[in-house]
Amino acid sequence: MQPSSDSTGVHRRRGRPIVAVVAVAAALVVWALVVVTRPASAASACGTANVAAGRPATASSIESSRLSPDKAVDGDGTTRWGSTQGVDPQWIQIDLGASTDICQVVLTWQTSYAKAFDIEVSADGQSGWTSLYSTAAGTGGAQTIPVSGTGRFIRMYGTVRATRYGYSLYEFAVYGGQGTGPSPSTSPSRTSPSPSTGPTGPALPGGGDLGSNVIVFDPGQSSSTIQAKLDQVFTQQEKNQFGTERYQFLFKPGSYSGLNAQLGFYTSISGLGQNPQDVQIHGDITVDAGWMQGNATQNFWRSAENLSIYPVSGVDRWAVAQAAPFRRIDVHGGMTLASPNCGWASGGFIADSRVSGQVSSCSQQQWVTRDSTIGSWKGSLWNMVFSGVKGAPAQSFPNPPYTTLSTSPVTQEKPYLYADASGYRVFVPSPRTNSSGATWTSGNTPGTSLSLNQFYVAKPGVTAATLNQAVTQGLNLLFTPGVYHLNQTVSINRANTVVLGLGYATIVADNGALPMQVGDVDGVKIAGLLFDAGTVNSPALLQVGPAGAGGNHSGAPNLISDVFLRVGGAGAAKATNALVVNNNSTIIDHIWSWRADHGSGAGWTSNPSDTGLIVNGQNVTAYGLFVEHFQKYNVVWNGNGGKTIFFQNELPYDPPSAAQWSHDGITGYAAYKVAGTVTSHEAWGLGSYCVFTADPSIAAYHSFEVPVNAGVKFHDVLTVSLGKGSITHVINDTGDAALPSNVTPHNVVSYP
Which residue stretches does the UniProt record annotate as biased composition, category Low complexity (predicted)? Predict the structure, then answer.
């Protein structure tokens, strides 16, 4: 049987009949015999090396992080992969690193075995699977299966379980013909899972150190030592809005006291436990705006994740604007989202968190909270959105302006770094539908755990060619803190690849490159990265799916999570578009796509960019869209079946005149345009603001432009003039004018 969890999340085993224990012991003995003394006939027909040993392994699901797929290729007969219980089908897949002639597979099952399963191979691990063996009468134990076929990827695809639990393998061994296949690792649990040669040269190693800008704290260190380092980085980063320094703080599991971690620009703080409760900060994690006399509207690019906070005063302060996510946090107390005197604040995002006390928004103009639990909420200004939040205020827009959805339609939480006894790992949460509340409050977050050895650990100076080789080789990508200049495209064409950044790792597009593009494949995760345009125009900064992509990815959606895109601010820059989403069923979970309105190179001709987000894919779902200041439509949505929950926008500050910012006889471009061909689209909680500093006489015609049909529905939409310029209508020809003489929202509760 497989372990279950009680209500406390502690793993307990159900009582087993003695016969079951004996069966497990027998299976282990058989496994040992298979590994140590393979039959002579098998040895003569196949090579003697297990070419799957230490190779990257992925799975359709895991029951818990200690039952991850790499445990089935680690050479240890006491560890195992285990799938989610009670669900068919399930699979475990191994990347052999190169096309390999395969002649034998040895599966060593735990008592939860497959009664019906296939052994399949594929050239790319995404499609074209060919069955080498199929049975509906699996026996469990140690199964030695002669096969004949060639492929780089091999998987066990289980369709019928022998028990009511899941599928579980101690080992998945693969043997090739004499002299074929990649060289095995001599110590698969400790060394890179790479083959001896890669597709474009010597194989790249997986794993490795995280670099000097990842600062790891241990509960054995003194509070004064930890505080001194936190203060040193904050002093450097407090006002460093467009600098190149990047930092990631990591706290090992345990309890810490007497700390106040103040976070400046490009600074992330995270716990290294599997769950937030594993790291306890008895102190504060603080974002304030003393550097701007209480004005928090420029507190960008910082984050907190995966830990518990016990605030000293009972209330933690998180006074932020855009690109400052607060994820997987357990706050034992309340929160305030602005400076002590309220001041100014504009925008923010909470997800997968629990706040036991009250959240006070104070001066926040808009905010989105998703899939969390809160004690209560106090305050509102223009646009407060709650999706799948337990304890959220009831729907009441516009008085007060609360937009509340009881559940979120389809979500997937951001992958995150953590550590266990084997070292660093990355956990990839599973998708959810119609979800509410955090993923971890009733036990471990469901999902898949990947060893750091399955990642190429990138550092500044790496080339696009090397990153492409790593992906082709079967590795995921982990970007350590720093600035990366890429003059070619990094192509993520392998399904289920994870691309994760630490400490606001920043990718700069050089020489007009499109720095990253995803193929028309399942399950790619892009998270925790900042993309910067360069001085030569790029067609886009991130493209998810090729033009015309048509694959059905509903079962394994692509995810864009805490991804920020910037044109200008750090210098003159150009990009036609920031983010283009072509793949169907993609989930966008918190982006800030920003054409700079201040900083270096901010000007109508010095940082030109048309559009912040273009969605061509079908059934794309977006939470927390912050898209601002682009020169044409800020968002263009061309695909059917789209959903947006929360949108915040400022139109460009700097159009030189109405004449130079018009099209088709219309003054201005809408902030959010749904194409006339779209027949189904729905959006909740959207706000657009204007402050035309170059020509305050501009009167934009409207901020939302949509086709008029029953399948296109907008809820709780508003516009505001911030004192310069006006917006004549809210959506199409509907809604009152937002005028500079009256800085208040003009609302449309539903459209049409």
Answer: 181-203
Q: Are 111 and 24 in contact (CB under 8 A)?
A: yes
pLDDT for res 436: 98
Instruction: Give the tokens for residue 624.
Output: 């927390």
- Lowest-pLDDT range, 11-15, 44-48, 279-283? 11-15
Q: Which residue has the tokens 């004499």?
A: 178
Which strands, in side-by-side order, build the sheet including 635-637?
490-492, 516-518, 542-544, 577-581, 611-615, 635-637, 672-674, 699-705, 726-731
Residue 352 near residue 363, CB atoms below 8 Å: no
Please give the structure tokens belonging to residue 120.
């399949």
| pLDDT score of 6 more than 70 | no
- In angstroms, rounded to a whole number, what is the distance separating the alpha carbons of residues 123 and 95? 10
User: In this structure, are residues 465 and 441 in contact, taking their beta carbons and an 8 Å threshold?
Assistant: no
Q: Which residues pair with 560 in a beta bridge?
A: 526, 588
| Cα distance between residue 667 and residue 498, in whole Å | 43
pTM of the full structure: 0.78
Measured at the alpha carbon of residue 723, what is the angle toward residues 722 and 724, in degrees to the nearest 5? Answer: 105
pLDDT band at 125 (very low <50, low <70, confident <90, very high): confident
Q: Of all residues in the chain, what percent carry a pLDDT higher than 70?
A: 91
The two structure tokens encoding residue 364: 């926040």
Only one residue has tokens 């400022």, namely 650
N-terminal to C-terminal alpha carbon distance within the chain: 55
37: pLDDT strictly greater than 70? no
Please check whether residue 109 is in contact with residue 117, taking contact to mean a CB–CB distance below 8 angstroms: no
Contact 480, 212 (CB under 8 A): no
Please tell me the distance from the alpha carbon of residue 193 to that of residue 197, in angstroms, as a whole number: 12
Burial 403-416 (b: 16+ CB within 10 A, else e): bbbeebbbbbbbbb
For tokens 């920003």, name the residue: 594
Asked if residue 145 lies in contact with residue 154, where contact means CB atoms within 8 angstroms, the answer is no
User: How far, in Å, CA of 675 to CA of 684, rounded?
Assistant: 18
What's the CA gap between 629 and 592, in Å, rounded?
11
- How many CA atoms lie within 13 Å of 305's alpha carbon, on the beta-carbon side? 24
Is residue 440 within 8 A of residue 423, CB to CB? The reply is no
DSSP 220-242: TS-HHHHHHHHHHHHHHHSS-TT
The residues annotated as belonging to the active site are 650
3-class DSSP string for 337-397: CCECCECEECCCEEECCEEEEEEECCCECEEEEEEEEEEEEECCCCEEEEEEEECCCCCCC
Please state, rounded to an integer, the average pLDDT across all residues of the chain: 90
Q: Span 323-352, mean pLDDT?
A: 96
